[in-house]
Design a protein that fits this description.
globular
Length: 254
Amino acid sequence: MCAATWMRPGESGERPARFRSVSKQPMGATLSHLDTLLDLKWQAWRIISTRFPAVNLFEELADPADWEALAALEALTNPRFLDEVGDLAQVRIEDRVHGPGASFLMAPFTHPRPGRFSTAAFGALYAGRTMDVAIAETRFHQEAFCRNGGLEPLDLDLRVLSLRAKGTYQDLRGQKLPQVYDPDSYAASQTLAARLRGEGVRGVAYDSVRLAGGECLAAWSPKGLSHCRHVRFLCYRWDGQRISDVFEKRPFGN
């Protein structure tokens, strides 16, 4: 049996980690002139569907340089394995991570999906600086998915991950970039992401579009991401028109 713990905005109890800015950027920033960097050290929160399984290749093997060969060998007896692993060529060998939780960190890059700062050509790991931010962001997108699909009322099960992010990121927070923060279009933000990624930038810290005052991270490489672990399950309740409730699922009596 499972017990439900209802979640309301501000009730996650998670506190943001400390950070410091490396340089200052005028508020009137443009897409062609961004020079604010952030020496980022966050504990962040990521929410994904429970249908995504861990891939033991990333969890158990110590030498990332061997992954392509071992994946090809495994695929000889398991044709679906390469689909599960994804495109390893998307991640440079020196940027790959392995060990416990590595599957969750590698998946966004080996299975790229379009988003505010990602395209079908390159992926990004998205995370919120607090769990409330992660819930607000994923709630919006899950709601849009259900509405566009005309789905009948149902419960969506999701997995909450905690991770650490460390490194130098482009800092877009607090900057006047209406095209990048367009709530309905990713055209400008994807263009900016492609440019910054091509210049060797590891990712961006940016303002949440779905929760005022919230902060998010989009990483274009797993390098600097670590300590990823599953912490809880959530249920998003779609009532046929909107996600009316979010609650935690846990074993009864805990």
